[in-house]
């Protein structure tokens, strides 16, 4: 072991002194800074993943809509063309519009999806029904679980359905109809469970007062995240003469907001690591004061300024290294038990992750290796800069004055 490491390790050993307490506090500060930043970035990454997964499972990967007007005619021929494109897994002609549902004085205004029953189960990955089934035959309707809760209905009950044409078309009267609730779905995403209902395409056409055609043709693919393959499918879809809207375009506000929030949160939390590194600098400043006679002796024996600086820089980096290792272990322990921690806090009356606010049934997280390197690298850089100040102060001490202290 060379001299700087030997002496730095010697100074790092616990002793019953103020310096040892300050050193311990500094290490704990670095540990907390590293752990908090990693945990927050992992949770924000998990949010992005879960939102992307829910969007890709529920919403179309490509929506084809007309450039002019609202109704697409000849949808069957268009579907036959698109379904032959490599990578396309499902094509569904649909009518999506907002309606008004009522039951015993309770109202809700979800978006209704008018789609054939077989197409619905293929295109929408929402798992098994929470209650009932997804049979859309006859005057039936399938509700999201939160829509059903808002209306106070369950499978077997009837809801009154009001057409939006009642408000916009003054020349015709669209009487409300009663449809039977045959199924309840729950996909685990609050916006979808509270904002969507499903009925047969024929029934929704009657509700909107049109005899044929659809409002959009929705396409699902096997490569929504593969930019090159997905772009090729979009080009094929554009050849139909309809305007294509990809899933990233349709929900770009969500992904942009998540990206900005993740970066800004990580940047702000990095200040915790910066504060912790200042604690390391304070520890080294205290150490240089305590070891002034030793520093004077070393300089008198001929040790260069570089070696003396190396002692304190190595000492500071040792503190950072120990704090980083403990921080990585702490973040792993918290992330491994994150949902249990959240549930325990909820039982104690501290609701830190309400589903109604975040729209998710459980708190998501995913640890990214690049985030770990980013955090560790930034702490090492800050630690090196912070250690250089007291190291320089020690190196420039006058040996005569130092020995006399």
Topology summary:
Elements: H1 3-12, H2 18-58, E1 62-65, H3 75-82, E2 88-98, E3 100-103, E4 106-108, E5 111-114, H4 117-123, E6 131-132, E7 140-144, H5 145-151, E8 158-162, H6 165-168, E9 177-185, H7 190-195, E10 196-199, H8 201-208, E11 216-221, H9 227-238, E12 243-246, H10 247-250, H11 252-290, H12 292-300, H13 305-336, H14 338-347, H15 355-358, H16 369-395, H17 399-404
Parallel strand pairs: 5-10, 7-9
Antiparallel strand pairs: 1-11, 1-12, 2-5, 2-11, 3-4, 3-8, 6-9, 7-10, 8-9
Outline of the structure:
With 405 residues, this protein is of the alpha+beta class. It has helices at residues 3-12, 18-58, 75-82, 117-123, 145-151, 165-168, 190-195, 201-208, 227-238, 247-250, 252-290, 292-300, 305-336, 338-347, 355-358, 369-395, 399-404; strands at residues 62-65, 88-98, 100-103, 106-108, 111-114, 131-132, 140-144, 158-162, 177-185, 196-199, 216-221, 243-246.
């Amino acid at each position: 072991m060379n001299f700087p490491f030997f002496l730095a390790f010697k100074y790092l050993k616990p002793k019953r002194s103020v310096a040892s307490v300050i050193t311990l506090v500094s290490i704990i500060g670095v540990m907390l800074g590293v752990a908090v930043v990693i945990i927050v970035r992992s949770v924000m990454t998990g949010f992005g993943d879960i939102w992307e997964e829910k969007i890709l499972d529920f919403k179309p990967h490509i929506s084809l809509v007309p450039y002019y007007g609202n109704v697409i005619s000849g949808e069957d021929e268009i579907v036959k063309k698109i379904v032959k494109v490599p990578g396309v897994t499902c094509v569904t002609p649909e009518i999506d519009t907002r309606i008004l549902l009522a039951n015993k004085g309770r109202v809700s205004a979800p978006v209704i999806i008018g789609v054939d029953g077989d197409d619905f189960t293929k295109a929408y990955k929402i798992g098994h029904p929470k209650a009932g089934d997804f049979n859309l035959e006859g005057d039936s309707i399938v509700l999201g679980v939160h829509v059903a809760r808002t209306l106070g209905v369950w499978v077997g009950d009837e809801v009154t359905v009001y057409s939006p044409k009642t408000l916009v078309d003054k020349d015709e009267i669209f009487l409300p109809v009663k449809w039977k609730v045959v199924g309840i779905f729950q996909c685990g995403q609050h916006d979808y469970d509270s904002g969507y209902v499903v009925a047969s395409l024929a029934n929704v056409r009657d509700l909107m007062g049109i005899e044929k055609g659809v409002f959009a043709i929705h396409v699902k693919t096997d490569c929504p995240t593969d930019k090159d393959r997905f772009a090729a499918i979009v080009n094929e879809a554009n050849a139909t003469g309809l305007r294509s809207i990809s899933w990233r375009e349709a929900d770009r506000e969500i992904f942009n907001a998540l990206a900005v929030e993740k970066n800004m949160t990580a940047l702000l939390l990095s200040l915790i690591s910066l504060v912790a590194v200042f604690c390391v600098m304070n520890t080294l400043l205290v150490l240089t004061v305590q070891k002034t006679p030793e520093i004077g002796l070393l300089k008198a024996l001929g040790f260069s300024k570089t070696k003396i600086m190396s002692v304190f820089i190595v000492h500071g980096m040792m503190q950072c290294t120990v704090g980083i290792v403990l921080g990585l272990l702490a973040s792993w322990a918290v992330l491994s038990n994150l949902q249990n921690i959240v549930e325990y806090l909820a039982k104690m009356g501290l609701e830190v992750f309400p589903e109604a606010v975040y729209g998710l049934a459980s708190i998501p997280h995913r640890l990214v290796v690049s985030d770990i390197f980013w955090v560790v690298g930034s702490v090492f850089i800050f630690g090196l800069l912070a250690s250089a100040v007291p190291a320089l102060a020690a190196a420039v001490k006058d040996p005569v004055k130092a020995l006399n202290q």
